[in-house]
Design a protein that fits this description.
With about 150 residues, the chain is mainly beta. The chain has two helices and eight strands.
Length: about 150
Amino acid sequence: MRALLAFAVLATCIGAASAQTPQQQQQPPRPGNANLRPVPDGPGIRSAELQGLDKVTARTQRFYVPVGKSTRFGTLEITVGDCLVNVPEAPPESVAYLTIVDHKPGQAEERLFSGWMFASTPSLSALDHGVYDVRVLSCTMAQGSSPSSR
């Protein structure tokens, strides 16, 4: 009986996935926490506040990246697919779905990271790079936010 139920659920999921439009399929999968939701609407643009560290120069830079947009940090191109926060009743948390691609001059681009980064535990899913560190600080409604270039 359980096997039949599991098969029915699997068939339903496969059918729903095939019925999605290409744009829906590009949405990042949500983390398994029911308390996470998009930043509440307000003035500004829904954005992820990130911090980058250049390990060679020891310089840090904070920047805002609107959801669905990309920015550059050194040779890295950082794209924010989604940015979620916990409901007010739950402990504070910000989570961003990032795709990070390295564009080293004279070399093929290399995807370094694609997944959810958690502000409260940056080491849980971190970018592993010899020159750069990138971490999520928060998800917010940024005023007049525009991708920074470095």
